[in-house]
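Lab meeting, item 3. Inverse folding demo.
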C-alpha cells in the first residue's frame, strides 16, 4: 500500500510540475499587459460572441473583422468568386483563413454577400463578395491593421465587401 501511495504522490507531483512548466511566460505581468492592450485596441462595438464576421471602426474606416474582432483581409491574387484560395503553403502561416463556425455563417453589420469555400483540409473558409478572407499573423490585438497593403496584394474590406486600398494614416 505504501509503495502505491508514494508512486501516486510522485505521479501527482510530476504532473503538477509539468503543468507549471507549460503555463507560459516567466513574467506574470506579461499576460495582463497583453490583455490590457487587446482591450484598448478592441473595436468600439464588439461583435456578438456567436458572429463569424462583424464590423469595427479603424484608422481605415469601418472594416470587417472576425468574431474575435481581428481584422479580415482579402488577397488580390485570389480569383473573386472562385472555389479555392491562391494562398497556400507558407502563405497560410502568415495569412491563416477566417474559418466559419458552420455552413451558415452568422454576421453582424456585414452587408456584402457572405459565403464559404472549402480549404484543402476540409474546413470552411469565409468569403465576402466572393473574396476568401484571411487573418494576418502579425495582427496581435483586435483592431490591428498591420497587414493593410502588404506586398500590394492584401487589403481590408468594408462591410459591403469592397476592398479598401488606402493606407492607414
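The presenter then showed the designed sequence:
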Amino acid at each position: 500500500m505504501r509503495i502505491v501511495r508514494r508512486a501516486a504522490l510522485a505521479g501527482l507531483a510530476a504532473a503538477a510540475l509539468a503543468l507549471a512548466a507549460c503555463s507560459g511566460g516567466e513574467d506574470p505581468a506579461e499576460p495582463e499587459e497583453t490583455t490590457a492592450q487587446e482591450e484598448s485596441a478592441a473595436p468600439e462595438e464588439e461583435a456578438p460572441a456567436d458572429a463569424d464576421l462583424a464590423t469595427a471602426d479603424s484608422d481605415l474606416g469601418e472594416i470587417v473583422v472576425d468574431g474575435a474582432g481581428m481584422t479580415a483581409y482579402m488577397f488580390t491574387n485570389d480569383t473573386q468568386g472562385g472555389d479555392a484560395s491562391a494562398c497556400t503553403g507558407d502563405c497560410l502561416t502568415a495569412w491563416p483563413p477566417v474559418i466559419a463556425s458552420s455552413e451558415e455563417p452568422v454576421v453582424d453589420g456585414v452587408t456584402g454577400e457572405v459565403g464559404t469555400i472549402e480549404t484543402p483540409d476540409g474546413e470552411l473558409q469565409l468569403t465576402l463578395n466572393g473574396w476568401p478572407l484571411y487573418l494576418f499573423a502579425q495582427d496581435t490585438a483586435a483592431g490591428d491593421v498591420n497587414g493593410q497593403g502588404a506586398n500590394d496584394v492584401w487589403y481590408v474590406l468594408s462591410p459591403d465587401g469592397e476592398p479598401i486600398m488606402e493606407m492607414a494614416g
